[in-house]
Each structure stands twice: as structure tokens, then as C-alpha cells.
Amino acid sequence: MEKEQCIYGLLLSVILLAGIRTAEAQSLKLWYNQPAEKWTEALPVGNGSLGAMVFGKPHRGHIQLNEESLWTGHPIERINPSASAYLDSVRQLIFAGKYLEAEELAQEKIMGKRLDTGVHTYQTLGDLYLRFGDTTKVQNYRRQLDLTNGLMNIQYQKEGVAYKREIFSSYPDQILAVKLTADESGKLNFVLQLDRPSPNKKIDVNNNTIVMREHVGNGDGVHYTARLKLDQNGGTVSRTDSTLQVSGADEVTILLAAATDYQSGDPDDITQNRISKASDLSYEQLRENHTRDYRRLFDRVELDLTDEDKGEEIPTDRRLEKVKKGGTDPHLTELYFQYGRYLLISSSRPGSLPANLQGIWSNGMKPPWNADYHTNINLQMNYWPAEVMNLSELTGPLFDFVEALNKRGQQVARQMYGARGTVAHHTTDVWHFAAPIGKTYYGLWPMGAAWLSMHFWEHYLFTNDENFLRRRAYPQMKAAATFFIDYLVENPDTGYLVTGPSMSPENQFVTPGGEKASVTMGPAMDMEIVHELFDATIAAAETLDADPAYRDTLRQVKEQLAPIRIGKNGTIMEWNKDFEEADPGHRHISHLYSLYPGHAINASDTPKLMEAARKTIDRRLANGGGHTGWSRAWIINFFARLKDGNKAYQNLQALYRKSTLANLFDTHPPFQIDGNFGGAAGIAEMLLQSHTGAVVLLPSLPDAWSEGAVKGLKARGRVTVDISWENGTLKTASLEAPKKGVYKVSYNGTTKELSLKANEEEIITPEFFE
After folding, report:
1. CATH topology of domain 83-112+348-566+574-581
2. What is the pTM of this model?
3. Fewer CB near the terminus (10 Å): N or C of the chain?
4. Helix boundaries (H) for 243-394
């Protein structure tokens, strides 16, 4: 009888996991009962390169547009020609404790001259307006983003007529599509305009098309073309010099394509070809192409955190407002989690650029921080959820970008530092500069390429793709590691090898003389990254049976690296000396890199460092830390790694309450997308971990998630994992891998070995761990 009950329980759990999608498909929608008034209330669509923010006003429809490569500027030389001659002088000043003198010399002789070379920036493609020319009151308004299908809809009634607009951005057909319908014939009347806030744009209107062109940046930037085609059933279309006017139509389809000459090709030809091919298909075929392609990625992962009514009658902004006032809402977490996956699918596709500081969605001509690529955490955080949330192929744009950065990175390594290999500093842009720019307190940080190279290694660990390891990951990691073989110098006080001049992003310390300084030798984050990069490069070479002599060199150098140390107050030392922080609540918590996203600080190998890491986070939070969205997201992941689910949950709620906008965008402030990606990654990290060699089930499950299920997460080793739980404890877990083998599985502190057959699901229960 007990055996029959056990079998019945297993079957019930399998049915539960299989049935998540039924409930989710009905509820994974961001929706509102009013149009967006502000850009941060609009809803995003995107296909990796062509994005739009949809406002949804009934009388004056507004769709703000972006094309990912629409950048001002061009490749320029940013290396300070005096850098190599003064490098040792800066180092000696630091070793002598003359920190302010070192910073002053570094600012003048090492830092690139940002103001002299100009600022290059990402810019809006423009705006699509639909002006309906009346202000008749509407009823039953609803604006929604359907995450399950990647579709944006606006519906309302006016004078008894039901109107609907549907918008999507298609990856397979590389177009933005807008369809307008009414349930009575001849009711669509509006003026269509394509515009851009620039005096240099040129607009041509011909028949049913509008074409907008420009050489951006006043002639110093890319050339773009935005091409729009309108098709209508019924009614008529007339034109002016800059608009199309639709009168008495039954339904209207608008197709828009955009391209630049950033990579290659004529944007006129590219957009003409895309519009021509899309026009050969019906709207229904375009929609089907889009949803099939999108759901191939989106449907891999499902999350259910509540058996309660999903509350579809509650608009998303009211749902969020309830949480901001202290309430709880498990379904908001389901939405936020899947929204993170939606945003990555929509902003990072094979062949595109990687997601920038705002993904691909940026308003105006001068976005915050130029919407560029900050490589001291922000670009990396954009890709934290990719592997674990079963979107591995979306990391391709990141790898393409890092490899393209190497050419300039090798030049900087050679000319600035007299080193081999590749290096990058705290930021870059689509023109791939790698030299340090700006001020020393944030710019003199030569770790960008090293940290980015670790994403290649993580991709291999998750996918077991040895071809990728051989062709791309190992060469990238070796180039980054080789730089440090040449760059490291001995600290005369300790005898350890250290990096420098460098700093701990973007914090400052208090010198013994009571002054604030930033530049030092061997800050903790640098040393943690180098330790883990050397370990990974050695492991990669061993896997490939390559470069035995090089492996030995890395081992020898690694033994001399400065270790992670604990300060007098019990926290991880952020710098090579036990300085006080100028800002104890600083948004960057860089010295915990090896807790997350690294893994050298862990309970089994370094329990004392784990304890110190916990004290470090507590100190930051006690002094106001986590006050930016991305910083709060990082803290969620820290607590997940510390296996404190309740603290991770508390910080997730703080992310909603303090750093989430009405459209669920993360705010720094202002809007930065990294917090969305970091927050989603944190939710996954609470449910599944695999960084220490075992698949760990529910490592940080909070009390608030007493029942639930997740399906389709990925663990390192290319293992797909489904989990269900009730009353806060594991119910069942399903593991599947494409390769036969023995895998370590852990739950509640107990680790067992599980034999898997290739591509065969194995279901386990808590009894497996007894």
C-alpha cells in the first residue's frame, strides 16, 4: 500500500510540473487599465536589435523606436601615450603610501583623455505616431504585454466600436509589426508619422511607405535607414511630405524595418529586402513566425509560486503598488522572473550586439551613461540569468563582442602595460575602446576583460560544449590570463604578487592621514578574479590536454598571488590593507566577487570566508547599501549563495519596493536593465545551484514560498532540472542530461550520487537523500 501511495505521489507531482504551463499561459501578462504617460510606463518589445516602447494612447498612439547599433562616433585612439613610462612611478608611490600623489600622477599620465576625444553615445531611432484626431471618451481600456507569446496589445471601446492594436518585433523576419482593427468596418481614421528629434533627418513619403534616413552625430556616426510600409483593407490612404493619412479603413498593418551600416551593408538595401520579404507574407504568417520562434526559447522554463488565484483582475501597477506598501504577492515574482527572461530574449539574439545598460530600449539623444557597456559589473550582470534560466544561446552576442574587443585590448596591454594578452577597463562602447577613461576612482580598473572571459568558462560548464571550449573559451581565457602573467608585480611588504595600479569599483578608502583615495595595489576584487581566472584557464587546458608548460606557469604564478583576507572587523578586506571605507554603504560590493558570481568563497572550502562575507553584506546593508536596483539584485544573489532564503527574499521585496518602475523596469535610478537580469538570476539561484560540483535543490527556499514548482532550469553539466515542493520541503525533482553519467545531487545538506541515462528523465523524492 505504501509503495502504491509513493507511485501515486510521484505521478501527481509529474502532473503538477507538466501542468504549470496551463496556469502560466493565462497569467503571464503585464497589464494596465490606462495608457502610459511616461516612457518608464510604456511596455517594451524587441527582437534583439529592433526595439520599441509602446505607450498605447487611444487618440495619439506613440511607439518609441530603437535600433541597437544606432551610435554616434567612430573608433578612436584613447591610450595616453605617456602611460607606460609612468606606470612604475605610480606603483612605487602607492607602495610608499603616497596614494593621493599616485592618483594625481595616474590621472595625468595614465588615464585616457575622455573630454579631448569626445563622448560617443547610443541614440533613439525615433518615434512612430498614430494621430486619431479626436478626443472621444473611451471605455474598457486595457494595455497588456503577453510574456507567453511576446505580443503587445491595446484594446478599448469608443462609441460602441471595439478597437484593437497588436505589436510585436520579429526576430525571424526582422521587422516590427503593428496591426490595427475595429469590429465595425470603415472605422479606422488616423495620420501616421515617422519622426526623430534631430534636424538632420530626411524623410521621404511615397505611396504607402515612409523612409527616414540620417548620418547621425552630425555626420560622425552610423548611417541608418528606417523604412515603413502600410497596408490597409478598405478605405483610402493619402500622403503629405511627411505623413500617411488613413481614412475609412477596416484594418491596417504597419511593417517597419531599420538598419545601420555599423557592421556592413547598405541600410537602404537591407531594409528594402526585409520589408519586401515580410510583405510577401500575411500578417498571420508573420505573427506565427514570431510566436513560434519566441516560444521556442520562452517555454523552456516555468515557475509557479502560489496555488492562489493569479489575480488577473489586478493591473500590474496596482499589484506592484501593493507590494511597495508592504504587501506580498508571489505572482509578482513569477511575472518578474519571466519578465527577465522576456527582456533577454528581446534584447540579445544571435547576430545582435549584447544588451547594453538599457537593453536596447533607450529614449532620446543622450541616454544615461550613453547606454554603453560598463564592464565592472553591469554588462556581466545582464547575462547572469542566461545559463541557469535555459537561454544559453543568447550569450552569443556577448562572446562576439568580447572577442571583437580583443584587438584593441591587445593594443592597450602592449602599449600601456608592456604586456601580452588582452585587457579592458571599466567601460567600452560599440567602437571597442579598451583604454581607461574618465577619473581614476572609477576608470583605472584593468579587470574588465578578465571578468568577461569567465562568462566563456561558465558557458562551457553549463553546456559541456568542448568545441566551444577549444575554439573560443580557452583562447579568450588564455589571452586574459596571459596579460596578468606580465602585469602582476611583487608587493615589497608581503612578497605576494598583486595587480595595480587599480581600485575597488567605484569605492574609496580612508588613508592613514584621513584622506579619501581610490587607487591602490592588489584590491580584493582584482585578486579574486585573477585567482578564479587562473583556476579556470588551467582546468580548460587540462580538459583539452593543451599547453602543459603554460599550465605549469599559471600554477606557479597562482601560488604567489595575494590571498583573500579578513579585516579587524570580521569582514572581507576590500583593499590590500585594512582601510576604512569612505562609504560603508557603497553600491558596489566588489570584494565579494568570489561569493557571487564566482565560487571560491563557499561553505565547504572556505567556511571562515563565508562567515566574513556574511558580515560584509550585513555591514553594507546597515550603512544604506543596496540603494540602486542592480546593487540590490546582487545582494539577492549573495544571500542565495549564503543559503539564507529569507534574507534573499527580503531583498527581493526591497528590489520591488525601492527599485522597480511601473512597467517592472529596474531603476538605478534612472532606468538600467541590469537589475532586472540580476533579480531574475537571484530568483533562480534561490531554487537551484550547481557552482560547487553538485546540483543543489532548493538551496535558499524562503518561508514565503512554502509551495511551488519550477520546470526547465539548467545546472552545470548540462542538466535540466524540474522541482516541486510543498510545506517548504522537497516533493519531487526531475533531472535529465544528454550524457550518461553519475551526477552529485544535494538537498538540505545531504549529497548523493545519481546515475543518469542519456536523455532519460530521473525522478527523485526526499527519500533518495535518506
Report:
1. Glycosyltransferase (1.50.10)
2. 0.95
3. N
4. 267-279, 283-298, 316-324, 330-347, 378-382, 384-388
